[in-house]
Amino acid sequence: MAPISTPQTPFGRVLTAMVTPLTADGALDLDGAQRLATHLVDAGNDGLVINGTTGESPTTSDAEKSELVRAVLEAVGDRAHVVAGIGTNDTHHSVELARTAERDGAHGLLAVTPYYNKPSQEGLYRHFSAIADATELPVMLYDIPGRSGVPIDTETLVRLAEHPHVVANKDAKGDLGRASWAIARSGLAWYSGDDMLNLPLLSVGACGFVSVVGHVVTPELRALLDAHLGGEVQKATEIHQKLLPVYTGMFRTQGVMTTKAALALQGLPAGPLRLPLVELSPQETEQLKVDLAAGGVEL
């Protein structure tokens, strides 16, 4: 049974885009994934995104993606929303991944903007519509033009919001003005996909976060959210400012690299990365330690 959701918070409020733990030889570490998922939900996450970019989805096979979703569901599926990343730059492939995720029991889908081939807005509309038509699962769009090369325009978001299965958007566009208009016009549940903008996006109507830094500071993110929802503006601002070194440190270089290093420093399941991603250098690891400590993270 899926955790409770509402139209305003279809996937909960605090979600972490979980890394994919690997064994020393680079194989999928399902036991580690279950232990990490349990740790993250215990820390306060309402949900987890599995097989997203932070989960190294470009370098995991379809079979591995399926195994991972099923393993995480077994571990925490009765306590948290398990959202499967199924987005690719191939609509047919994305549809097949969506159907597999539904069969595996996922509670929802995350569909990123097709990358590299740079479709038109009509192409984006048809791509996302095909995914939404393919299953009965709720869909969260993922708008990240810095990676995909193409933004989802507000008009396209408004059109897509008319589909009964398109219920949310993960916003990594970095444009608060456009976000404000899109939230107001589309009615989609809005999730911050850019940790540095978690609090600013709440202020213009976001309902929660899909976070990378949630791997190490979920309780603080929960406290920030609760303060904002409770009208404690100064407290929310203070938490935001305390987390600035964490936000900065976790994105000094590629986020999966820093996240797996941070988890390793805390003795949590992570493992190596798959090329083309590589482990942090000793100097980068030392800087990460400084950044995390400055943000109050215990290592």
Main attributes of the structure:
299 residues, alpha/beta, 12 helices, 8 strands, globular
Give an overview in words.
There is one protein chain. With 299 residues, the chain is of the alpha/beta class. It has helices spanning 30-43, 62-76, 91-104, 121-134, 145-148, 154-160, 176-186, 198-203, 214-229, 233-249, 255-265, 282-294, and strands at 14-17, 47-50, 81-85, 108-112, 139-143, 166-171, 189-192, 208-211. It has an eight-stranded parallel β-barrel, surrounded by five helices. The chain is globular, with a radius of gyration of 18 Å.
Please give the structural blueprint.
Elements: E1 14-17, H1 30-43, E2 47-50, H2 62-76, E3 81-85, H3 91-104, E4 108-112, H4 121-134, E5 139-143, H5 145-148, H6 154-160, E6 166-171, H7 176-186, E7 189-192, H8 198-203, E8 208-211, H9 214-229, H10 233-249, H11 255-265, H12 282-294
Parallel strand pairs: 1-2, 1-8, 2-3, 3-4, 4-5, 5-6, 6-7, 7-8
Helix pairs in contact: 1-2, 2-3, 3-4, 4-6, 6-7, 9-10, 10-12, 11-12
